Amino acid sequence: MLSRDGAPPRSTRKASLDPKRYRCDIMKSVTVYCSSSPAIDPRFAETARLVGRELASRNLRLVYGGGSSGLMGEVARACVDAGGRVFGVITSHLANLEVAFDGGEELVVVETMRDRKQIMVEQGDGFLVLPGGLGTYEEFFETLVGRVLSEHDKPIGVINDHGYFDPLVTLIDHGIEQRFIRPAIRRLLTVADDPLAVLDALEADPGHQLSPADLIPPLSASEGAE
Q1: What is the Cα–Cα distance from 99 to 107, expressed in whole angstroms?
Q2: Sequence-ordered list of residues with C-beta below 8 angstroms from that of 51, at least 6 positions apart, any chain
Q3: Mean pLDDT, the chain, as a whole number?
Q4: What's the structural domain count of the chain?
């Protein structure tokens, strides 16, 4: 939590390397990646609020980037208002820029973005990606690569709100067509415009694990089709 005068606490948490935090057995917490920008279309804000309420309804703790503006603030406030639990993690620098949300169960302030992302991966049992900018894309790709390389086995869902992520899906499919990305990677993603459907998929995740053959690039242009 923030102190009474609104300043972030001086104590910081170091990102741990506990391997148990990278394995998902029971879905208890969901990490949400999304925008902190206040200059967004209200349609996206409504979806973020729906996600916050739904997480609370399913008794799933929200883990997110700790901000109070943009979609971050919308999803966090909606979750708390619906009786849900919120775990935020933010850097000391961003805490001042974004005005950290202090209404959740716990707010952790760290020094680096690397620590922030690592704690978000550790604390969540699955990942939801809502519309966002460069930071959201970075978090998405780092989390996806981590699952591809078996650094974690947690499900990843993308809420394609009003078609926002159509270009992202096209980019991944283009990489597959050009044989820079293995086709099996698509099995690790759930992409849908319905937030409830994506959450359902996360909770029912079959735990796809890629084989070494899935990770090895094709040796020729004729290989790799699935």
Answers
A1: 12
A2: 32, 75, 78, 128, 130, 159, 195, 199
A3: 86
A4: 1
Residue 191 in domain:
yes
In a domain, 223, yes or no: no
Q: Is the pLDDT confidence value at 64 over 50?
A: yes
**Does 221 fall in a domain?**
no
Pairing of strands 156-159, 127-129: parallel
Residues 172 and 160: beta-carbon distance below 8 Å: no
Rg (CA), the chain: 18
- Out of 17-26, 45-54, 62-71, 106-115, pick the least confident: 17-26
DSSP SS3 for 64:
strand
In this structure, are strands 106-110 and 127-129 parallel, antiparallel, or unpaired? unpaired
Which tokens hold the place of 100? 């950290």
CB 111 within 8 A of CB 141: no
CATH classification at residue 201 = 3.40.50.450
